[in-house]
# Entry
Amino acid sequence: MIYPDGSSQLQYFPATRWTGMHTFRIGNMDSSPLQIEGFLDKMIEGDTTQLTVNAFDETGSLIEVTNQVVFQSKNTDVAEINESGFVTAKKAGTTSMTIQYGDTIITRQLIVLELNPELILDQLETYIQSGDVRQPLSNQLNNRLQQAIHHGEKDHRKQAIKSLSDFLKHMSNKAHANQISEQAKETLTANVEALIEKWEGWHDSK
# Structure
């Protein structure tokens, strides 16, 4: 706040008054002219996310400009992004996303990970370490994924899918409801169901 006598007062604690010329250094500020919400550096095949882009107007206020932005994916085989900023991860690989608002262009790299039982096993282990999945359910889920990996390596898709289906049955068992968080259950269910759908489209050689 600037007073008529030329002195100033900070608006935040601790309040201090001073006169004359002073130089301040403000840290922890994003130097980017755009703020992008929803962007993920890594996604899994089949994942989606919605980007929201904000920019500062001439008054210094932050406003949403998503509908004024031009989005582009360098490799649309890996991931697509539509004119509204909706991203769809299609297959494993790397691409770059270009976000242009007026003369400002920002490029972000996106890595799409292959959806496989090993990846889901890594997710499960992370949830076990965080306490989101607990025993005895954690052991049952781990065993089913290990079976799916074993059958998948031998190209026994039907048996692998059966193991994944059993994985889902264990999570849905009401007796285990207090052994898994809603977030872990939702994420693991979505990924296992997507993997089953993916494998059902492949030929089982055995």
User: Anything to note?
Assistant: The longest helix spans residues 182-200. Confidence is low (pLDDT under 50) at residues 11-15. The two ends are 77 Å apart (CA to CA). Helices lie at 117-130, 137-153, 157-172, 182-200.
